[in-house]
Design goal:
The complex is a heterodimer of chains A (154) and B (87). Chain A has 154 residues and is mainly beta. In chain A, 6% of the residues lie in helices and 32% in strands. Chain A contains two helices and eleven strands. In chain A, strands 3, 4, 5, 6, 7, 8, 9, 10 and 11 form a nine-stranded antiparallel sheet that branches. A two-stranded antiparallel sheet of chain A has the order 1-2. Chain B folds into two domains: 1-36, no CATH class; 45-78, no CATH class. Chain B is built from two helices and three strands; from the N terminus they run E-E-E-H-H. In chain B, strand 2 and strand 3 (30-35) form a beta hairpin. Classes of the chains: A mainly beta (154), B alpha+beta (87). Chain A binds chain B through residues 8, 26-29, 41-42, 44-46, 57-60, 66, 102-106, 109, 111-112, 114, 116-117, 130, 132, 134-135, 140-141, 144-145, 147, and chain B through 29, 44, 46-47, 49-60, 62, 64-65, 67-72, 74-75, 77-78, 86-87.
Chain lengths: 154, 87
């Protein structure tokens, strides 16, 4: 089994079906075209999106439906085509595609997920695109929860 | 911010060599045509927001991860670290 060096799990073995290919990379990381999805039962619902080329590059992601059970995909025909999907209908999450949202740890200890631009993976080919849902009202910084509520002064 | 009212088919010029034409104007969206020299990058703002957000996301570290695990525990999405036995 092939091995890769990872940011959080040292060196680990991976199987071919855990690799996703992004023809255009990720926005901001256009050269990064291959990632391994590290989806361990103990860390669920977290999924680690580990670059194969750059050990120190690993995104933390969540299945979109765990953040918003009502989430609706609105993928552009170009992105559907890039994933080899039928451009005339939206794919079903869990059946045709997996859909992850990338988590950010910003200032003020706020954790957010990018619901504007989900990482969509064609489940039959493992080709993926971080698609931008321009016609939606989803936020690129959807708050997960602030860690500590502000103390209320009495 | 400069605000200009334009109708369908009308355009604005930016500098000597950038022209933005309103191709279609609907109730909720407009279709713009942009003519600019090749060296000028034109992209939707959402793409830049996602670039920035990905760069922030890539700086996560182990400390951030344990904070996230706590938050997910509060949301009922996973067991809090240190509570209960690990499987």
């Amino acid at each position: 089994m092939p091995e890769c060096r990872t940011k959080y799990f040292e060196t680990m073995e991976y199987t071919g079906d855990s690799v996703i290919r992004l023809p255009n990379g990720l926005p901001g990381f256009e050269q990064e075209c291959e990632f391994v999805l590290i989806d361990q039962p103990i860390n669920r619902p977290l999924v680690f999106v580990q670059s194969l080329a750059t050990p120190d590059l690993c995104f933390v992601a969540l299945p979109v439906l765990s953040v918003d059970p009502e989430y609706r995909l609105l993928i552009s025909p170009e992105d559907l085509e890039a994933m080899g999907l039928n451009a005339s209908a939206q794919p079903a999450i869990g059946k045709d595609v997996a859909c992850l949202v990338i988590v950010s740890f910003g200032e003020d200890r706020l954790m957010t997920a990018n619901l504007l631009a989900p990482l969509v993976i064609n489940l039959s080919t493992r080709v993926a695109v971080q698609t931008i849902q321009s016609s939606s009202n989803y936020s690129h910084r959807h708050p997960l929860l602030t860690e500590e509520p502000e103390p209320v002064c009495s | 911010m400069l605000v200009v009212r334009r109708r369908q088919g009308e355009s604005v010029l930016i500098g000597d060599d950038i022209e933005i034409v309103v191709l279609e104007a609907g109730a909720n969206r407009v279709k713009l045509g942009i003519m600019a020299p090749r060296e000028i990058l034109v992209f939707r703002k959402e793409l830049e927001l996602t670039r920035e957000q990905n760069r922030v996301a890539a700086t996560a570290d182990v400390t951030a991860l344990s904070r996230l695990a706590n938050v997910l525990g509060d949301l009922g999405l996973r067991r809090k670290p240190g509570s209960g036995q690990s499987v």
